[in-house]
Amino acid sequence: MASTTVTNSSASNPYAFLNASSSSSSSATSSQNIQDRFLTLLTAQLKSQDPLNPMENNEITSQMAQISQVTGLESLNTSFKTLLQSQYDTQALLAASLVGKTAMIDGNTLTLSEGGSAQGGVMLDAAAKNLEITIKDQSGVVVDVVTMTDVGSGLTTFSWDGVDSSGNPVAAGNYTFSVAANNGDSSASAAVQVQRLSNQHVDAVVWDKGSPYIVTPQGGRVAIADIVQLS
After folding, report:
1. Both 110 and 78 in a single domain?
2. Comparing C-alpha atoms, which of 161, 162, 178 is closest to residue 170?
3. Is residue 38 domain-shared with residue 118, that is, in the same domain?
4. pLDDT tens track for 188-222
5. Which of 27, 74, 131, 156 has the fewest beta carbons under 10 Å from its own?
6. What is residue 87's three-state secondary structure?
7. Is the four-CA dihedral 203, 198, 168, 142 of positive or negative sign?
8. d(CA 214, CA 206)
9. Distance (Å, whole) CA 156 – CA 121
């Protein structure tokens, strides 16, 4: 009886290249290599098909469509990563340019410089007939009251001259303020919703979990998206 010899050459085993590819470098996962491997496999299938039962055209078309989708998705993924990196670089450049500026953020702190003034802001949900800003020192004692009338909805800024209600200059430092606003109606619904805004110097910018934050003199962190106004 004649002996039979089994070999693993690519001539007798058209799929041998798949086993060999497992030891190739990581570049084999590139879209070009994926396409090359697919074409090699398709050629092997065509050569090894049963002449009495050849592959249908729709089978070949389906496989070609699948490989096109794979290479297209890989190309899209590469483009998306490039876009994200570009956006990250733009954010970093923008964040770095904020250092040294003054940012208006949520808060009720007024920083009074020596011989200067302090600025703050309010965000009104609706127009207010009367707006009263009460300024207190660090002990909670009322120092001054600033009043405004006929204030429109949205952002309104104000400046405090650093003088108390008796006309005397007060010491430089940090003060707090509260706000009361109403629309002039005598009903219980006369109050207008108010958000207090504080002007803070941007001392630094830090990144936390991929997002930029400004650092205020008090050491607080505020997301750039939460800044209402820059000056």
Report:
1. no
2. 162
3. no
4. 668 899 999 999 999 998 888 878 888 988 888 98
5. 27
6. helix
7. negative
8. 6
9. 6
